[in-house]
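Hey, resending since the last one bounced:
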Amino acid sequence: MMSSIISPCTHGIRRNVKSRRARIRARYFHLAASALSAFLCLLWANGHAAQFPSDWKNLQTFQVDRRGFIKLDLPLATLDAARSGLEDLRLYDSKGNEIPFRIDRPVPAPKFVGDALNFRVAIEDKLTVATFETGSNRLIDRVTLSTPARDFIKAATLEGSSDGETWQPILQANPIFHQRNGAGRLHLEFPPGAWAHLRVKLDDSRTSPIPLTGAQVHAAEPDPVASEPLDIRVVGRDEDDEQSRVTLRAAGANVTLAGIEIEAVDPLFSRQVSLAYRQVVEDEIRENVLARGTIYRVAMEGHDTVSSLIFAENVTIPKGELIVTLQNGDSPPLSLTSFRAFRRPVYVSWLAKEAGQFHLLSGNPSCAAPRYDLSSMTAELNAALIIPLDLTPLEANPGWRAGEPLPEIQGIGAAIDLSEWSFRKRLSLTKPGVQQADLDLETLSRARPTFQDLRVIQNGKQLPYLLERTSITRSLVPAVDRADDPKRPDVSRWIIHLPNPSLPLTRLTCETNNPFFKRSARLLEEVPDKRGNVRNVTLGAATWARTPDDKKKKLELALSSTSTAKLVLEVEVGNNLPLELNNFQIYYPATRVVFKSSLDEEIFLYYGNPKAQYPHYDIDLVASRLLSAERSKASLSEMQQLKRSSWSEGGIVAGKGGWVFWISLCAVVVVLFVVIARLLPKKPGETMK
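The structure tokens again:
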């Protein structure tokens, strides 16, 4: 038998292969263990990470490397994402603890302004000299003169004195002016100084003197307030015969401006200027004016040019898009070259008990402003130094979810007996939450004038609501017929037909193409009494006038609420041709109910109960928050009549005297005829039946 022979070389190869396989297995095991360990650590970190309130949408994180009092200059992105009043800002540490903080918006302190004392004016050698006492021991840096003059320009020299005898020059040939378009400069600014007496000299060598009636002195600011540039760019410009409109886009909103500077190449000019922003209200885009001012560059002959090109100081802008309007009047538009803006910083100060990560939350549309008791730290917070910190860009809060608006308003009100209500309309809702429903003409007509009979009902119970009487006006276009009275040739008459009676109207407008006129107009209503007699009730009167130089504007007449659906407009003619009127419109205020509801059950608006009293709901205590919350629009459906109006409620006299009245009168007449016929003597030969 042959024996197996294995060489030593073969044994070595096998040992090397096994060793290599073992090393590979060990390496894979090490990698798997590391991955598992990292995964478990990640799970643990997620489970123990700071959890932030879910009602806040935005999150920013930053690192603080030391303990103590910290002051952070809020970046523009944070201000832009937060609410205008910064009520929704919250600060948390790395452990999820809410940190009390204070918000500082530094603005110049209100200046002391006082009336000048012992104000005296004299004319001396082509000079108007006004001398007065300041009445203040503060530092003064500004004087404002008072005059009824409205079209002038003067060179003013200002002198100061401590005793009223020895005078020192302060300003030389500084222009003051006022123009017919309203632009003007009546103040003199100078370096701060303590002056007991001041003297102003106006140069009358080129123009007639102007009357001066007084002056005001302004105290200097104790400390200047910081400002920083705000990126702003021009995105649109429109010109017309009277004004220039420039649309600007700022890099952020909810900031307080330190001013907007307008650069123009024109050598001399003055313009009234305003700053506004657009806002959507009731499906209409409206412009809200934030600031008005005057920019100018003027010069007196032989003197240096003086300019003031900054306006809109210390104004908070709620939107990033702004509109600057310059009133040109009869002057050509300015050659504008650039716009520059500056803003006031906003600081957040707090006590950091330890170094580490902090988190800033924003973006809650309905939360109330926090109330922290930091009175014991006032001195330390005031002395805190501004620390430059790098905040991460805005990112979504991982736990954010859209919360229920005003969760504290829950449930419905008390049950109610609705048997006395005559009408109702179903309210159509698009989503749950805070709702607003505008009262339509039909509801305005049939509800009580005070609206105390309105009830919002869900499932037989009341939903608390707020009645909002807005300053918004709606318009309706009535049907109008010309109805001149041949017996009154000196009066033009129009019959105006309204869609409903008893409407809360405020004014009537119409138009005419006549170039000039002056006429008296009055609006009447023919109101019947219970016996059918008609009396004229004057709802409004006005005098309409126009000259050839006036622009054609709508003729307007203020009026009060009506009782019927027919009005009569009478316009005096005299010995002139009648006015041709057209484009009639009648206006009434928008009134609405605001409430919170769900979509679980149908909701109705009940009205038409003359005996109803005013409701009293606890929702009044949170009225401000309810009115400021985001609302959905609820619409009213067709009216449902629940009961007929009783005679005692006025139904018997509707129309000219009322049909019941006339039927009753006819019946009485017939009975009287029968009685009289029976009492008359009979002719001979007739027998009683």
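The longest strand covers residues 582-597.

Sorry for the duplicate.
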